């Protein structure tokens, strides 16, 4: 009986929803089909593909999902810059054939390529030599990202894991970091709303420099400001968040009336501590809440 009870407890702990996943169309290492297949094998029933600045993987993912009996929400992840921190935005139920958003994303991908070249050049100045051609091979036609450069560094033996490349070289304060053109957070939210997508702040603790009262107040102020232009939710159930972090973020979301989203942010990166699909995610009713917002956005567009 104890074994059965333990097994059932483990099953209850598994998430059936993951709203933050990446494929080879940005900086993930699984193709859309491979990722959807993995999610189906892990018991997930509703997922969102949220590649960085790219919608190219959605048709393949949705075709694979139809074969496997799970739902794929069309999503995207945008990076935005604000004084004092970087904000990432997730958009759900994106209209992939919208020429205005497609143009914005194409510009971002071009900027990623330019930045990638500059990072490789800066690494060479630091006596870390990776091939730009190999970085492009690793991106496999998708949006070039720092994780591709990190993987090239792993292959050349400069670091053991991609995370070490970010910690030592590629992170925002690292010696090889190069910025790129981005929208402001408010501009990013507005662009998603105009598309009809539902905007959500991704991994909000990345915007914070700690979890003290001042940082919580700063996050709350930023979220409240973005709500004025259409922000609908924030990630509360995410990756490797601790119980304390989840409780803090849930409290902020409740105070502001934001939808409490979440997901693994899975890239198949090769880091030993990476959170895998099915390990963390929001409750299923979050999908309905996002759909309600989506319906209101569409209604406003028709008015």
Description:
The radius of gyration is 19 Å and the shape is globular. It is built from eleven helices and seven strands. Helix 10 links the parallel strand 6 and strand 7. The chain has 303 residues and is α/β, with parallel strands linked by helices. Mean pLDDT is 92; it is low at 1-13. A seven-stranded mixed sheet has the order 1-2-3-4-5-6-7. Helix 2 runs parallel beside helix 3 (58-68) and helix 5 (132-139) packs across helix 6. It starts with a helix and ends with a helix.
Question: What are the main properties of this structure?
Answer:
303 residues, alpha/beta, seven-stranded mixed beta sheet, 7 strands, 15% strand, globular
Strand content: 5-15%
What can be said about the biggest beta sheet? Answer: 7 strands, mixed
**Low-confidence runs:** 1-13
What is the average of the pLDDT values? 92
Characterize the overall form.
globular
| Largest sheet strand order | 1-2-3-4-5-6-7
Terminal-residue CA separation: 58 Å
Order of helices and strands: HEHEHEEHHHHHEHEHEH
Radius of gyration, taken over Cα atoms and rounded to an integer in Å: 19 Å
Please estimate the helix content: 40-55%
Please give the count of helices. 11
Structural class based on helices, strands and sheet pairing:
alpha/beta
The count of β-strands is 7
Please describe the topology of this protein.
Elements: H1 2-13, E1 17-21, H2 32-41, E2 46-49, H3 58-68, E3 71-82, E4 85-92, H4 99-125, H5 132-139, H6 146-155, H7 162-170, H8 185-195, E5 198-201, H9 213-227, E6 233-238, H10 243-256, E7 259-263, H11 285-302
Parallel strand pairs: 1-2, 2-3, 5-6, 6-7
Antiparallel strand pairs: 3-4, 4-5
Helix pairs in contact: 2-3, 5-6, 6-7
């Amino acid at each position: 009986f104890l074994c059965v009870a333990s097994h059932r407890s483990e099953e209850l702990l598994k998430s059936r929803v993951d709203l933050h996943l990446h494929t080879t169309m940005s900086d993930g290492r699984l193709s859309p089909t491979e990722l959807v297949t993995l999610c189906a094998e892990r018991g997930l029933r509703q997922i969102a593909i949220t590649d960085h600045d790219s919608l190219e993987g959605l048709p393949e993912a949705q075709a694979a999902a139809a074969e496997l009996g799970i739902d794929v929400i069309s999503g995207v992840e945008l990076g935005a810059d604000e004084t004092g921190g970087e904000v990432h935005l997730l958009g759900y139920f994106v209209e992939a054939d919208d020429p205005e958003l497609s143009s914005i994303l194409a510009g971002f991908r071009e900027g990623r390529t330019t930045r990638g070249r500059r990072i490789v050049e800066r690494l060479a100045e630091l006596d870390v030599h990776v091939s730009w051609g190999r970085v492009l091979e690793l991106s496999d036609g998708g949006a070039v990202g720092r994780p591709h450069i990190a993987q090239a560094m792993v292959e050349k033996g400069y670091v053991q894991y991609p995370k070490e490349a970010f910690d030592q070289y590629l992170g925002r304060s690292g010696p090889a970091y190069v910025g790129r053109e981005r929208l402001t957070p408010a501009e990013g939210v507005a662009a998603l709303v105009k598309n009809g997508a539902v905007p959500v702040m991704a991994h909000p603790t990345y915007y914070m420099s700690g979890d003290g009262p001042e940082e919580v107040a700063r996050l709350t102020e930023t979220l409240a400001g973005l709500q004025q232009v259409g922000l609908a939710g924030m990630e509360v159930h995410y990756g490797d968040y601790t119980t304390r972090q989840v409780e803090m973020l849930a409290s902020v979301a409740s105070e502001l009336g934001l939808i409490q989203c979440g997901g693994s942010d899975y890239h198949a990166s090769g880091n030993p501590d990476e959170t895998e699909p099915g390990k963390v995610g929001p409750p299923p009713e979050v999908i309905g809440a996002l759909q309600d917002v989506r319906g209101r956005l569409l209604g406003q567009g028709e008015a």
